[in-house]
Amino acid sequence: MSLFKKIFSKEKKETLDKGLEKSSTTFLSKMSKAVAGKSKVDDDVLDDLEEVLVSSDVGVTTTIKIIKRIEERVARDKYLGTAELNGILREEIAGLLSESETEQGVNTGIDWNTVSKPYVIMVVGVNGVGKTTTIGKLAHQFKKDGKKVLLGAADTFRAAAIDQLQIWADRTGVPIVKQQMGSDPASVAFDAVESAVKQDADVVIIDTAGRLHNKVNLMNELSKVKRVMQKVVPSAPHEVLLVLDGSTGQNAFEQAKQFTAATEVTSLAVTKLDGTAKGGVVIGISDQFKIPVKYIGVGEGIEDLQVFNKFEFVDSFFKK
């Protein structure tokens, strides 16, 4: 099928296949049990399929959409064999992800010819989701692409957050702007963006506090960080990247709900997919939030944060 034309390098695709192996194996095993002894896709098979999708963390809302699409195909084609079900499911999920993709998500890369410098990325997410690691891996990727990168340690509520970001700055060889623990996060963000302008940096990545305290406080804090950065670069931030832990399954949906309610999130990164069978959460999150999943974490290596490609993802998810 032309939708699944390979665009990844062989090495990246192998990493993706390996990272989604647990999710794929678990999902296909459940599918095999659901259709065991049955030759035709009927109501019983569809009921079992619905249970498989929900238990694979695709989410109830997205599962209902997928089942409805398959019901329409059954009605149209009159007879669908269970042997065809994997292929049909794969096509319908890829189609659903294509439809849910916003214009903003059509191109997950950054067009450096059109963006203003410095390109400001504000990273949000709760503690423990892999936020700092994602920032470090992004810094590495940008630098490898020949870009001048600067980090801003605006998560000042945990000394560990500043220390962790410093480790990544050292590891990737990029400068970091930081202050003492307890400093005003907005002040750090201001200094970081100002330094990026002075140093003619291409991109500045701002870490923010990972606390899910009450929504009003979170909203006020993130709004202040934005306002202060805009004193230096009026269009900042150009991107608000929400990092979610894929291994938490449905909890990732809740985090996405809270953060999208508190601030304008423009892109998502879903991490820790390699250590879990909950890869289906990417399908549900992509569909429900209408915010492009831009990166997925499929391993611990510095190269294992990949730009998300829905067709490659679905291909790996259904790999036998």
UniProtKB/TrEMBL annotation:
UniProt keyword annotations, A-Z: Cell membrane, Cytoplasm, GTP-binding, Hydrolase, Membrane, Nucleotide-binding, Receptor
Compartments, as annotated in UniProt: Cell membrane; Cytoplasm
Enzyme Commission no: 3.6.5.4
Residues noted as binding GTP in the record, renumbered to the chain: 125-132, 207-211, 271-274
Taxonomy, superkingdom: Bacteria
InterPro entries: AAA+_ATPase (IPR003593), P-loop_NTPase (IPR027417), Signal_recog_particl_SRP54_hlx (IPR013822), SR_rcpt_FtsY (IPR004390), SRP/SRP_N (IPR036225), SRP54_GTPase_dom (IPR000897), SRP54_N_sf (IPR042101)
Keyword Disulfide bond: no
SMART domains: AAA, SRP54, SRP54_N
Domain SRP54-type proteins GTP-binding: 292-305
Family: Belongs to the GTP-binding SRP family. FtsY subfamily.
NCBIfam families: ftsY (TIGR00064)
Quaternary structure, from the entry: Part of the signal recognition particle protein translocation system, which is composed of SRP and FtsY.
Name of the protein in its database record: Signal recognition particle receptor FtsY
